[in-house]
Amino acid sequence: MKPTMQSMSEQQLPWRPFTVPNLISLIRLGCIPVFLWLLFSVEDRWAAALLLGALGASDWVDGYIARRFDQISELGKILDPTADRLMLLVGIFAIWVDGSVPGWIAWLALVREGLVAVAALLLAALGARKIEVTWWGKTGTFLLMFAFPFFLAGESDVFVASFFAVGAWVCVIAGLPIHYWSGLTYVPAAREALRHGRAGRQR
Fold first, then answer.
1. Quick check: is 6 in a domain?
2. pLDDT per residue as tens digits for the range 28-85
3. What's the total number of domains in the chain?
4. pLDDT beyond 60 at 8
5. What range does the domain containing 184 cover?
6. If we measure between CA atoms, which residue out of 63, 72, 66 comes closest to residue 137?
């Protein structure tokens, strides 16, 4: 019988660095400089938006492969959210600098990401157990990963730019509240992770 996702989260997973999902996460990280080059050096908003959107979609792909082909690993559980967070932080800030997204939307998204990143570092320093990414967290991240490329595409010169502009607002209106709500749901999880981490060190 295959282990369930819950049972796998309760035990130490194998490190397994050489898996397809981990390779996809590394490619996503490596494409961040390419996105910046397309946006600021080539000044091609449409190409930059397509790349960022594809990178966001690949987050679903590597998760599916990991579950479908039993390639879930401890390294993957670190690489995947790290790639998500860096893509969002860099992408949002770059699109804000480009002027393709309203400043208040970028600010709200960046504040949430910054708070979560600082909290994760603080918990790790205090010896807390790793917190599992929730469905709400994944959903909010997924929506924002499309909202910001859509804002960028909406400011490009393609003939369907207005369609992407509307899609951007739909995704961000749904995504930002979910993103903040998911952050609140991590608070009790963080307390539990810190308690378990301290208990483990005292054994």
1. no
2. 999 999 999 999 999 999 999 999 999 988 877 877 887 788 878 777 778 888 888 8
3. 1
4. no
5. 14-202
6. 63
Q: What is the DSSP letter of 41?
A: I
Inter-residue contact 152 to 99 (CB < 8 Å): no
Report the distance separating Cα 22 and Cα 29, nearest Å. 11
Structural domain contains residue 169: yes
pTM: 0.82
166 found inside a domain: yes
Q: How far apart are CA 23 and CA 176, in angstroms?
A: 29
Half-sphere exposure of 109 (CA within 13 A, CB side): 32
Q: Which residue has the tokens 């995947």?
A: 80
Task: Give the model's pLDDT for residue 120.
Answer: 77
Report the CATH number at residue 193.
1.20.120
Q: What count of other Cβ atoms lies within 10 Å of the Cβ of residue 118?
A: 10
Among 126, 16, 148, residue whose Cα is nearest residue 71: 16
Whether 106 is in a domain gets the answer yes
DSSP letter string, 71-111: ---HHHHHHHHHHHHHHHHHHHHHHHHHT-S-HHHHHHHHH
